[in-house]
Amino acid sequence: MDDLTPAARKFILHWGEMGSRWGINRTVAQVHAxxxxxxxxxxxxxxxxxxxxxxxxxxxxxxxLQGWGIVRVVHVMGDRRDHFESLxxxxxxxxxxxxxxxxxxxxxxxxxxxxxxxxxxxxGPREAHLAERLTALHDFLSSMGGWYGSLRALxxxxxxxxxxxxxxxxxxxxxxxxxRSAKASVAPTRQRRN
Amino acid sequence: MDDLTPAARKFILHWGEMGSRWGINRTVAQVHAxxxxxxxxxxxxxxxxxxxxxxxxxxxxxxxLQGWGIVRVVHVMGDRRDHFESLxxxxxxxxxxxxxxxxxxxxxxxxxxxxxxxxxxxxGPREAHLAERLTALHDFLSSMGGWYGSLRALxxxxxxxxxxxxxxxxxxxxxxxxxRSAKASVAPTRQRRN
DNA sequence: CTGTTGTTTCAGTCTAAACAGAAACAACGG
DNA sequence: CCGTTGTTTCTGTTTAGACTGAAACAACAG
Lengths: 194, 194
Known about the structure:
DNA-binding; about 5% strand; two-stranded antiparallel ribbon; mainly alpha; homodimer; elongated; disordered C terminus; about 65% helix
């Protein structure tokens, strides 16, 4: 962690922090961050040295990242050791992660909601209100899932364009569209009732 | 937790579990889940009794939910105690939560990336690769943020319709679109390479 | 003033997850 | 067969965060 440049170190630490705030193991996120910014593939021992964590920890993290499909093994001529590299394409990274979390968490949630709704309905009018609320939630989540599925079904360029579609509308409201416009959409949205 | 119906209990536990997997305190998520499905507003003591957690814990959780703007105090005639209710509207719930997490985590990440990029650029060509990777990430996240801002700027009905836009595409693939079609959109998205 | 209600804080406990470090094992190249 | 490399599994240990329960405090209604 000491032979990293300040910028790289800052990024890796922040990325690890973000990961842990979103339910991703900090070390896993850090390993990924380092691979993502590394110009060339790294060995497990490189990662151990750079991040200062145990070998077993790195090994597990690499396995998990490979399981997600965002890190893969490559081989370097004249070196028997495995080297690892991250997907470089950010869009692909995004979709792969979203796919995986959808499968692991989102879809089971929708299914669990369907179960709860069935159960509440079978319990008769006494739980009608519960069934109603859960149905609203279930339908909303299903819609989101369906929307994401549609987006994923598009070829990548079309998908990116589909996301950009809002930009035209946004310009009507006088907002810019590139990087630093974030704040414009943050503050005054609280008590609006769309 | 024992006087809840099985369906309600199952939902609350699952919701708490999901919350904790996405960086939201389990108790906070459970309190919200219970308020969300409750036909009438509940007092803090109701929550203590139903969830079996400490009073201070409920109080803190309620404060946090109020801070997010998804729970509010209401008063019941002839009762001096505060009663709490959740936003019932799922779309509003979603946007409020997304707004808050964007503000707390997403925007700071974009800003941190900009910092790292500046630093890497100032370090000269030695860190050109780092700057390049981080810029790709930064631009992607900015785009996502901009897209979300656009969506939020739309009146709600238009926003929902904008999300539904994919449905037409989806129907080409033979999927349905309304509530129970969840399973249809799940499986086959894995190994496609857009 | 007194009892009720609610908030906040704080010290201590508890727990799940992360993590370290070692060991055992497999694969394989030379 | 030996050395290298990598994986897996295990036992402890550590740590962050969640949580409890109590206490101090404020507000206020009657």
